[in-house]
Amino acid sequence: MLGGGGLVGHAWHLGVGAALSDATGWDARRAAVVVGTSAGAVAGAELRAGFHPVDLLRPGVGAAPLDTPRPVVGPVSRRPACLSLAVRALAPWRLRPGLVAAGLLPPGRRDPAIIRDAVAGLSGRRWPEEPLWVCAVRLHDGRRVVFGRDPGAEVDVGTAVAASCAMAGFFTPVRVGGHDHVDGGAYSATNADVLAGAGLDLVVVSAPLSLRTGAGPRRARRRLPGPARAQRLAHGARLRREVQALRRQGTPVLVLEPEPEDLAVMGGIAASMDFDRRAAVAEQARGGVLRRLQRPDLEAARSALAAAAQRG
User: Fold this and answer.
1) Where does residue 95 rank: exposed (0-12), middle (13-18), buried (19+ CB within 10 A)?
2) Are 102 and 168 spatial neighbours (Cβ–Cβ below 8 Å)?
3) Exposed e or buried b for every residue in 36-75, given b needs 16+ CB within 10 A?
4) Half-sphere exposure of 226 (CA within 13 A, CB side)
5) How many percent of the chain have pLDDT more than 90?
6) Pairing of strands 132-138, 253-256
7) Helix 39-48 to helix 157-165 angle, to the nearest 10 degrees?
8) Counting CB atoms within 10 angstroms of each CB, which of 26, 45, 116, 150 has the fewest?
9) pLDDT value of residue 220
C-alpha cells in the first residue's frame, strides 16, 4: 500500500522498500496486490514493471521525473475546477478536505502526460499481469475510482497513474471514460481501506504524508509549523481509521510513516515536489525504517515478511 506525497513521497517509498528488503529479504515486487495513490501509483507501476526499490534509488531509473514539470497547458484560470464537488464534500457527514480543495482549486497548468509517458516507457501501456490497483477521484462527483480493480474502469496503466497523480491546482485533470479524474489523494492519502476483504496475510502501508503520533508530539511541534502538523495529523487520523477497518477483519497491518527526525529531511508538505530532496529522503527512510523494524512490537510483521521471502 503506497500513499501519495509527490517526488519526496516517491523517494520515501523507495527507501521503505529498500529497508524491508534489507531487514527481511522480502521483495516488494512479489506483493500479492500493490495499491498506489499518486506518487505511490508511480512506485507501484515501477514495482510491477520489475524494478527493485534498491535499483530505483539510482537517479534516472524508473518513471519519476528528474525535475518539477513547468506550467505548459492553457492560460491561468481562477475558476474552481468543480464548485459543486466542493459544496457536496463540505457536508458534515461526508467531509473530506481533499475533495473540497479539488473542487475549489482551479485546474492546474502542468500536463500529466509527462507521467503517463514515463510509466508507459517502463513496459508499454498494457496492464501488469500481477494485481496493481491505482486510486484516483472522478472530479464531477468525488467518487473514488480504483483502476485495475473496478469494473468499467478500463484504461492503460500510464493514463491510470497520470490520473492518480493529477494533483488539484498543479496538473490538469485526466480524461478517462468521458470524465475528468484527479489525484486519488483528494479522497485519501493512502486509501488503505480498498484492501478490506482481500484476505491478505499482511498489509504493509507506506504513508509519507502522515506522522507517527507515537513518536512524540512535542518533538513534532518543535519541527513543524501548525498548519503542516495539522495536515499530517489529519492524514494520519484517516489512515488509522482505514487500518482499524482492516484489523477488525483480522488482517495484520504494518504502517511505516515518517517520524519527526524524518520530517527534518523531507520538509513540509509544500516541499513534496522538491526534486533536490529525493536522494536524502530515500537514504533517511531506508536507515530510519530499518532501525524501526528492529522494535520488538514489529517482530510478527518481520517474521511474516521473512517467511514470504523464503517462499519466493
Assistant:
1) exposed
2) yes
3) bbbbbbbbbbbbbbebbbbebbeeeebbbeeeebeeeeee
4) 0
5) 73
6) unpaired
7) 160
8) 150
9) 45
Q: How many CA atoms lie within 13 A of 289 on its CB side?
A: 30
Q: Under 8 Å CB-to-CB from 287, ≥6 apart: which residues?
A: 15, 19
Answer yes or no: are the C-beta atoms of 132 and 171 closer than 8 Å.
no
Half-sphere exposure of 153 (CA within 13 A, CB side): 23
CA atoms of 102 and 81, how far apart (whole Å): 7
Query: Which residue(s) pair with 112 in the sheet?
Result: none
Contact criterion met (CB below 8 Å) for 168 and 182: yes
Specify the pairing of strand 253-256 against strand 203-206: parallel
At residue 157, the pLDDT reads 96
Q: 3-class DSSP state for residue 145?
A: strand
- 273's torsion region: left (phi>0), alpha (psi -120 to 50) or beta? alpha
- Sign of the CA dihedral with 123 first, then 124, 129, and 132 last: positive
Pick the closest to residue 125 from 217, 45, 205 (CA basis).
45
Chain segment 26-55, per-residue pLDDT in tens? 999 999 999 999 999 999 999 999 999 999
Q: Look up cell 527526525; give the residue.
A: 261
| Separation in Å, CA 244 to CA 31, 192, 247, 252 | 21, 10, 5, 10
Q: Secondary structure of 222-267 in the HEC alphabet?
A: HHCCHHHHHHHHHHHHHHHHHHHHHHHCCCCEEEECCCHHHHHHHC
Cell, residue 163: 490520473
pLDDT greater than 80 at residue 67: no
Residue 93's pLDDT is: 61
Query: Which grid coordinates belong to 216?
Result: 512524540
